[in-house]
Amino acid sequence: MGRRILHTIGIILLLTTAFSGCSSQSGPGGTVEPVADGVIDRTSDGALVTTTAPPLANAPAREDVERAMRSVFEWQFETLGSPEPDWIQSVFMIGAVAAYEATGDTVYLGAATRWSIANDWQLGPRELHADDHVSGQVYLDLARLTGDMSEIAPTLDGLRVLLSSEESADRIWWWCDALFMAPPALARAERVTGDPEFVGSLFGMWWDAADPLFDGDEQLFHRDAAARDNRDGAPPLSRHGNRAFWSRGNGWVLAGIARTLEFLPEDHESRELLGTVYALMAERVVELQGEDGLWRTSLLDPPEAYPGETSGTALLCHGLAWGINAGLLDPDAYAAPVFRAWDGLAASVDGSGRLGWVQGVGRRPGLISAEGSAPFGSGAFLLAGSEILKLTGPRESE
Fold this sequence. Notes:
By secondary structure, the chain is mainly alpha-helical. About 50% of the residues lie in helices and about 5% in strands. The chain has 16 helices and 4 strands. It has helices at about 5-15, 60-80, 85-105, 105-120, 135-145, 155-165, 170, 180, 185-195, 200-210, 225-230, 245-260, 270-285, 310-325, 330-345, 375-390, and strands at about 40, 50, 215, 220. Helix 2 packs antiparallel against helix 16, helix 12 (about 245-260) packs antiparallel against helix 13 and helix 12 packs parallel to helix 14 (about 310-325). The protein is globular and about 50 Å long.
């Protein structure tokens, strides 16, 4: 299990700290010290948060962030179409729930609740497919926030089917997006029910899935086996001759780790290694950010080669901002890239509230346009904004 990835990380841990330059932070999974004069704590429902922290220097104005989030939400919600528990809509609703938690605006909560009711609180039809488990994150978060556990039985039953499968994790979660879709649902199921069965095998499953996809040299993830190796064994290359690491794919992983660590028990065996992979990825992706704050669809290509892509940028922004808020990343090193990313995202929203420059559904770095939009891109934007808001200081009601 996890021979390649664990071997790489083991060497790195012996040679250097995963959080170089973060003098106030402990290693992942350890006790986290105060950050930026705030206090790392957990809410009553178990979420890892920073409380009483003052705004960071150069943080965007809170009202501007909230206004952009509401604008993107309203445009996307009006154009969403019939409710479906697929990953495309589920990621949007995940963002809506996060926006509610960050703003207290019940418009977001009401929308997510009505969408869940319209879907009869059901997962997607494929029992083992991670894309059909991601809606469970919405249902479980609503149960966590409202205390109403009456509708989560289908989600819990579906996750139990996944955990009872004899299929190996690298065959079930064979593409890196799956590390966003399913593991955070398992962590939330444990938090909501208190039943350790939901995370009991998460360590082995996550590493078996991640091992073939993680590139220790680049500290990035391949999207799947086909993105790692051509049939002749040579690596697939971008049109600029670089290894093709997809920004959205790596955004799924970074954000997925953050959303898993957020609710994973403090003593869980996978916390330290998950946190280490998170820190390695964070260190690498900030090196690849464009001057406009956006990441390109193909991470290793020169930023000036083509415009930045917003869904991958939003996921990476969310993952990095969460790390600052959770005390895992040094704000002195990471706040500036995070705020640049948010500025680039906000500049990509047109006057109607549409977030543009979103690559459509795909498997590889692809073409984008100013008109390109998708519900999952808007959901990632809301996730990013929700963490940015925490960096602007507490809400007035707090």
